Every structure is written in structure tokens, then in C-alpha cells.
Amino acid sequence: MVIKAFLFDLDGVIVDTAIFHYQAWRRMANELGFDISEEFNEQLKGVSRVESLEIILQHGGLTLPEERKAELAAQKNQWYLDLVSRMTPNDILPGVPAFFSQVRDAGIKTALGSVSKNARLILDRIGMSDAFGTVIDGNKITRGKPDPEVFLKGADELGVSPADCVVFEDAVAGIDAAKRADMIAVGIGSPDVLTQADIVVPSLEHLTVPQLLKSLDRTAGLDVY
Ligand code: BG6
Ligand code: MG
Description:
Elements: E1 5-8, H1 18-31, H2 38-41, H3 49-59, H4 66-84, H5 96-105, E2 109-113, H6 119-125, E3 134-136, H7 149-158, E4 165-169, H8 172-180, E5 184-188, E6 199-201, H9 209-218
Parallel strand pairs: 1-2, 1-4, 2-3, 4-5, 5-6
Bound molecules: 6-O-phosphono-beta-D-glucopyranose (BG6) and magnesium ion.
């Protein structure tokens, strides 16, 4: 195995938009008369807008007509975009710029693998539009995570075999997608939540490229950082 490409999730890995998604969904749930907890929110991470809405409505015990669901999804997106519109390069998560410069130095290819339809907009806001070899977002795929499509497409566009790819993910669904794509999964967050990840670190700030490559090299069975 030779690591040739790193595939990054966006929300919760490069920027902390995961909290904006939660705030917007919570506002919607509250207006519908129920609440969603942070713990509940874990299962929404990495899941598409439409599927997230279904999970939330089921949680609230609501069955709504398609038309109303479309209105709610659009309203949630508007609230989300209001939060995103205030973002600047200062919102890039700690450790990301330094990690990316090491990735470039190591000659490793990069892809963004996000199911968000707003990914391009966010990359523009934070000044990272040109940071990736290729960008796969919600507009380029038909199936959200945990389906591996987003990562397989990223590897394909980079011309790299899935087995030579490492995925960086903060979502349970994203780690599942990476494993189904036959890739190495680095979890960003808590090992208690991201139980299927090969390695888990609190953030990219806690990782260097040489250290990661060494750890992947050392362990056929990869250890927890
Ligand atoms: C993922 C987020 O990146 O994108 C999910 O983790 C979100 O929470 C999904 O639902 C879709 O995003 P968007 O921006 O298209 O609504
Ligand atoms: Mg994420």
C-alpha cells in the first residue's frame, strides 16, 4: 500500500459548519414543536439534506406531505446559508493550513468529498477553492454517505486506486462510506463516536503528515492515535 491521495470531508473537518447544520435543523425542529439533542445530531452528520429531514421528522413523530417537506428543507437551507454567509478564512479549523502545506510537500493528491450542495460556496468563502485536486460535492453524486460514491468518484477523478486513499471524516456515516470504498479512514473527533475509524484524532491540529504516514506504515492493522 502506497498512500497517494487524501480525501477530505468538508463540514466538521475543514470548517466547523457541522454546528451551523445542527443550529438550523434545531431551529426547524423547535418550530415544529420538538427538540433535537447534540447526541441525536451525530446521526445527521454526513447525511444529505433530504435524508436528514426524514430522520428528524421521524424523531418528532411527524408525517408531512412532500410539498411541506420541500418547504422545510428550503427554509433550513436558508437559515444555514445565513450562518455560512458570515464565514471568512478565519473559520478554517486550526491545523488545516499547516496540514495542507505538508500534504503538498509530500506530493500527495487531494480531493474534497462532501455530500453538501453548498460545498463550493463554502470553499469560496474561506478562500480554499483551489486547495483540492478535485472537488466532489452533493451536485456530483446521486447517493449520500454512507454510500461510498462520493469517495470512489474522488479517487477516480484523481486517477488513484481506492486502496491507496486515506479519508478524513468527522461523521459516522462518512467513516462507513470510506470503509465501504476500501479506503483508510481517519476519524476527526471522538473514538467513542467514530468506532469504525482506523485512527481517530481530535482535529487535524493533532496530526502531521510524516507522523500519519509512519503510523499507517507501521501497522498493517493500524492503531488508535
Ligand atoms: C454534509 C453535512 O456535509 O452535508 C450534513 O455533514 C448535511 O449535515 C449535508 O446535511 C448536506 O448539506 P447541504 O449543504 O447540501 O444541505
Ligand atoms: Mg462532516
